[in-house]
Amino acid sequence: MTNSTNVTWHETTIAKEDRRVQNGHGSYVLWFTGLSGSGKSTIANAVSNELFRLGINEYVLDGDNIRHGLNKDLGFSDEDRTENIRRIGEVAKLFVDSGKVVTTAFISPFRSDRDQVRTLFEKGEFIEVFVDCPLEECERRDPKQLYVKARRGEIKDFTGIDSPYEAPERPEIVIKSDQLSVQEAVNQIIQYLRKQDEIQED
Ligand SMILES: Nc1ncnc2c1ncn2[C@@H]1O[C@H](COP(=O)(O)OS(=O)(=O)O)[C@@H](OP(=O)(O)O)[C@H]1O
Ligand SMILES: Nc1ncnc2c1ncn2[C@@H]1O[C@H](COP(=O)(O)OP(=O)(O)O)[C@@H](O)[C@H]1O
Prior knowledge:
Layout lengths: L15 H8 L5 E5 L6 H14 L4 E5 H4 L11 H20 L3 E5 L5 H8 L7 E7 L2 H7 L4 H6 L21 E4 L5 H14 L7
Parallel strand pairs: 1-3, 1-4, 2-3, 4-5
Bound molecules: 3'-phosphate-adenosine-5'-phosphate sulfate (PPS) and adenosine-5'-diphosphate.
The site of adenosine-5'-diphosphate has 17 residues, from helix 2 and helix 8.
């Protein structure tokens, strides 16, 4: 669905590939998905630090932050979550076109929304990272005390409580964050990127 008519797509004169060559590395999105409290932000930021240290040009888009600005008009109904993820997907694509590595940390609870975002990218550019953590453990951590509020009925449509989370079926990476330390999770992701030749050996 689009309301934009009479608009023409402009090819940029500098291609994504030229930017990649200048940066000395590929560009792609590490798309984290998982329940609130599963560790998306913590692990995404730790990966970001490691990539930065390795000289990789990257940026983190985080759920809470984007909802303060670009998506502050959106709530947590199914429709708003779908629109939230659609916009983030488009932003992530711009980052990848600009030659950067972008790490996103959104619950992104609906499989169809994540699959739709995947279609925006070329093969290998969309790396889905499922932060797989049992609801009980997320609820035990409850870093923002949101589960307590959701259980009391003070927050409606809370993911895992009264709003669904659809786990990915074929994610590129699964992080069992209840069984690994943050550093081990980072190592697993870096190892994956090395295998894909996205990070060169030192
Ligand atoms: N109802 C409800 N359900 C889930 N989460 C809620 C809700 N209300 C507020 N929050 C806070 O918003 C963060 C999730 O935002 P996202 O943009 O990642 O959500 S979504 O992808 O559109 O589902 C989420 O952040 P994380 O805990 O980092 O996942 C919460 O802090
Ligand atoms: N192995 C782990 N990986 C990620 N987070 C962990 C891990 N073990 C404990 N935690 C804690 O769990 C909480 C996860 O919160 P957060 O990263 O904000 O999750 P999310 O972004 O998915 O809501 C943090 O307080 C973090 O310190």
